[in-house]
Structure formats: structure tokens, C-alpha cells
Input
Amino acid sequence: MKKTNVSIFIPHIGCPHLCSFCDQKSISGAVKAPSASEVRDVLNEQAEHLLKNNISAEIAFFGGSFTAIERGYMESLLDAAKSAVDKFPAYTGIRCSTRPDCISEEIIDILKRYGVTAVELGAQSMNDEVLKANERGHTADDVRNASNLIKSSGIELGLQMMTGLYRDTPENCLYTADEFIKLSPKTVRIYPTVILKNTKLGKLFESGEFKSFSFEETVELCAKLLRKFTEKGFRVIRLGLHASADVERDMLGGTYHPALREIVESRIFLEDLQMRLFDMEKGKYTVYTDPKNISKAVGQKKSNINALAELGYEIKFRPMTGEYILIV
Ligand code: SF4
Output
């Protein structure tokens, strides 16, 4: 059975802050907050489609700071979601995203009462200076405290980080990953900064004060982050913002690419292959790899083949089930 999320965007209304990078309107593509009855309608409608296609789904409240929205409204949305989970077996759980300083024991009790199965914290960085420079309004310790509360309640913990924020460095991002690993989240999302119009970052970008990491720096860094998390057994469930016409329209700078994860995975493959080729003579080789790796191996627009050719290795990739890199 395939798994998916039915995402319900709750725009900026829940959030007591305005972070440097945030223009919820562009990111969520939604302006109006849905009512509980609208949520019920969507979930009823989707349930039929899920059932027909043998798909199971979690109901995901994303987009703002879910646990910071007005209590009665939050509970009405949770109630709509819980009714759908109780009624339709296709729904397997409820997840939400929120700010680290909007989690308390009381909030956890409410979430548990409605059967919330996973909470994702928008941590963004574990460096207090970066958090401050980007007007997050919380500290790294808030992330630690909220993470521990979530985990000890039995709810699944997800952590989200950003790369290339104002005053950020690649070293800070690697430190953030190490601190995440200490908190042992079930899932991680990595979002390279996209600089949007009508944000503080947008103004800093336009004034020349800030430009974030380049595309190449981001790919290199994200390859390190993805390696770090996956080697320790942590699941990175998202790398890069979802493709969005709103973001494409309002983007001033930073890194956005609909196939960013594929590009990063392709870079990891290239690095691994280069390591193996390191002490081999330059020349022509055939590299066997599992069919699912072939497009990563070749790279977008043959970027890996071309990079290796520049180093003197003329490589042909051939499929071999179960193999990662076999050089012949
Ligand atoms: S906490 Fe989230 S919703 Fe609120 S301003 Fe920051 S990024 Fe936007």
C-alpha cells in the first residue's frame, strides 16, 4: 500500500513572529485559513480517492505554527482530523508542524487527546546567533526542550532545518545536524534558504547585505548533511521546498530547484565514485550500479559523466541489480 500525506495549509495566523525568511503567503500558496467544516469536506473527499487507489495517508497540518493558533480553532481542526481517522481506515495518523517555543505539556496533552502521531518542529538552526539574526524568537534550547517533551510523550518527532540563512555558515549547518542527531528525531527536513520578496531577507538581499549560499555551495553542503543523517540511520523526508509557482514568482535569490534532492544524491554518487577511482589509472571504465541509481550516477544533463571526463575518466554506466559501484 502506498503512503502519502493529505496536507492542509494553515497560513500565518498561528504565528506570533515574522521570521526573516517567511512569507507564508508565498510558501503555502494559501491566504485563507480553512474552517473545520472545510477540512472535514476535504478529508471526506480525499478518503474516497485514497480507498480507490489503495493509498494510506496521514493528515498533515502544515504552513504556519499549528499549536500557536487560537485554541478553539486548533481543537476544531484536530476534531475534524480525528473524526476522519476514526471513520476512514485510509487515514493512519495526524501530523502538524510548529515552532519549538509553542510546545508545552499542556499542548502535548491536547495533541495526544486528538490522536496526533507526529509533530515537526521548525528548528531551522541550532546556533543562537543565527536564530537571533533571523528573528526566530526562540533559542536552540527551546528546540531541545520541545524535542524532549514530544519524544517523552510518545509522539513522533520531526525536525526541520534551513541552510544559508542570514549570518549562517556551512559549519553552523553541520553543527545543527550534529545537534539534531543528539535529539534523535524520527524524520528530518532540510530546506535551503529561498529569498522571497516582501521578507526581511528580501530587503537585505536587495540592499546587497545578504546573498545566501550559492547553488554549488548548497549542493555540496546538502550532500554532507544527507550523508550525515542517513549514515546514522535518520530519515531525511524532504530536501528543498516543494515545486511552487508562487515561490518561483516571488523568489529573489537563494537555492530553489524542483529536483534538488536528485541533484544532491547525484553529487553523493559522484563523490563515492571519485573515491573509488582515486588510485586507478585514468582511462575508460564501465561502472555497474543498480538500475535505480542510474540517473543519479549519470547526473542531470550528464553532469557526473562530464565531471569525470574532465578528470580523465571516460565512464559508461550499466545496470546491475543490487550493486552500488562496481568498476570494470
Ligand atoms: S515561525 Fe514559521 S510561520 Fe512564523 S514567521 Fe517564522 S517561519 Fe513564518
User: Anything to note?
Assistant: The chain has a mean pLDDT of 94. The two ends are 38 Å apart (CA to CA). The first strand starts at residue 2 and ends at 9.
